[in-house]
Amino acid sequence: MATALRRLAKCSVSARLLSFAGHSRGRRGHFARPCTVVAQRNFSSASTMTVDLDSSTGIAVMKLHSPPVNSLSLDFLTEIAISLEKLEMNKGCRGVVVTSALPKIFSAGLDILEMYGKSPERCGEFWRAVQEMWLKFYSSRLVTVAAINGSSPAGGCLLSMTCDYRIMADNPRYSIGLNETQLGIVAPFWFKDTMVNTVGHRTAEIALQLGLLYSPQDALKIGMVDELVPEEKLVSTATEAMARWFAIPDHARQITKSAMRKPTIDKLLSARETDISNFVSFITKDSIQKSLKLYLENLRKKKA
Ligand code: CO8
């Protein structure tokens, strides 16, 4: 995994943004590597996900599979980011549907065990991987659709909000939102910005302070998700939704996406190291460690 992280670190953000901005030179440069467009299966090296690219449609389906709850650990985040990067480099891929292979859970968010009882160095490494996953998805040239087939708190909600479009299973048992304050932690500015960009300032202000988790119906009302469908229709609806986005010339769509998102992306890029040190000093505080311990105990108690 250290190698994987080194690869991530080497990935040039400016090259990515250039390609994302749709400048044909940048794009050609970015995709210069020859690639055969074939249906692929499991091209991620780990067993934490499958990525199937249908070469006839250009749509990849990324299914997260890290039992029990798809919590986003350092390794898993790195796998997700690398898988997206591979799709980005494949000329035959125009869009990706992100969903879960686990029943009832899209993603439980960041792996709390990565933030509890870990050294500052490890926390910093973890946070860089969280940033990288967000940067890759939020700036992707691909059309990204989240097919949310289960609960999606905190980091799971963030992952879905990086996508261009969100479709959620209409099941009142599922919930979605940024519930960080309920854990006694604080969503960093770029989580907050992503939420504001999705649901607007006032709704985000209430939701973030109260750490609200929304039912699918309520998430639809506030615009956190764009569509609700019966669970069995989720991936097929996502594929159909993709057709609307594919009908727009790629360069026009990509430049527009960049215009909408670049200020938010640049804000993190210009404060990346400070954001890491802020995270590390916050999360390693005794009081925060106590809150996380309590939260973990409550999760376990709930089960007993
Ligand atoms: N991280 C690590 N382990 C987790 C997590 C998680 N996020 N969520 C659940 N688990 C563990 C449980 O502890 C349990 O472990 P064990 O089997 O050892 O007891 C196992 O996964 C299964 O969990 P449940 O029995 O609770 O499974 P259910 O199917 O009943 O419920 C839920 C699934 C709804 C996902 C539920 O587990 C849940 O609510 N989890 C907590 C989700 C959460 O609050 N996530 C927030 C993470 S923090 C984050 O993403 C952003 C942090 C930003 C940091 C900013 C700091 C500055």
UniProtKB/TrEMBL annotation:
Give a GO cellular-component term. mitochondrial matrix
> Which BP terms in the Gene Ontology apply to this protein?
fatty acid beta-oxidation
Recorded hits in PROSITE patterns, A to Z, give: ENOYL_COA_HYDRATASE
Query: Which InterPro entries does the record associate with it?
Result: ClpP/crotonase-like_dom_sf (IPR029045), Enoyl-CoA_hyd/isom_CS (IPR018376), Enoyl-CoA_hydra/iso (IPR001753)
Quote the Pfam families the UniProt record gives.
Answer: ECH_1
Determine if Isomerase is one of this entry's keywords: yes
Please give one Gene Ontology molecular function term for this protein: delta(3)-delta(2)-enoyl-CoA isomerase activity
UniProtKB keywords? Acetylation, Fatty acid metabolism, Isomerase, Lipid metabolism, Mitochondrion, Transit peptide
User: Where found, per UniProt?
Assistant: Mitochondrion matrix
Which EC main class describes this enzyme?
isomerase
Question: Hey, which pathway is this one from?
Answer: Lipid metabolism; fatty acid beta-oxidation
Q: Which reaction does it catalyse?
A: (3Z)-octenoyl-CoA = (2E)-octenoyl-CoA; (2E)-tetradecenoyl-CoA = (3Z)-tetradecenoyl-CoA; a (3E)-enoyl-CoA = a 4-saturated (2E)-enoyl-CoA; (3Z)-hexenoyl-CoA = (2E)-hexenoyl-CoA
Enzyme Commission number(s): 5.3.3.8
Tell me, in one coarse class, where this protein mainly resides. mitochondrion
Task: Give the top-rank taxon of the lineage listed in the UniProt record for this protein.
Answer: Eukaryota
Matching entries from Gene3D superfamilies are given as: 2-enoyl-CoA Hydratase, Chain A, domain 1, 6.10.250.170
Annotated family: Belongs to the enoyl-CoA hydratase/isomerase family.
Instruction: Summarize subunit and interaction data from the UniProt record for this chain.
Output: Homotrimer.
Q: What does this protein do?
A: Key enzyme of fatty acid beta-oxidation. Able to isomerize both 3-cis (3Z) and 3-trans (3E) double bonds into the 2-trans (2E) form in a range of enoyl-CoA species, with a preference for (3Z)-enoyl-CoAs over (3E)-enoyl-CoAs. The catalytic efficiency of this enzyme is not affected by the fatty acyl chain length.
The protein, known as: Enoyl-CoA delta isomerase 1, mitochondrial
